[in-house]
Amino acid sequence: MATLAQMDRLIGRALFDAEFRALLLADPEQAARQLRYRLDGGQIARIRSLDAQALDEIARRFESAIAQPVQSLSFW
What we know:
The mean pLDDT is 91. This protein is mostly helical. The longest helix is centred in the last third of the chain and has 16 residues. It has one domain.
C-alpha cells in the first residue's frame, strides 16, 4: 500500500509528465511500479475513477501557471 506522500508524488508526476499520466490512467499498477510503489486495491480503484480529461486540464493549467515569468522581488 502506497503512503499518502507516495500517492502525492505519483499524482504530481502525472501532472508534469503526459506520458506517465497516460500510463497511470491506463495501468496504475505499472505506473506505481516505475516509482517502486505498491498500490492496494482501493488506491487502484480511485486512480481508475479519475476523470482523464479533468486531470489533463489540471496539468495544462498548472503548466501554464508555472510557465509565467516570475516577477523579481529585487529593489534594483
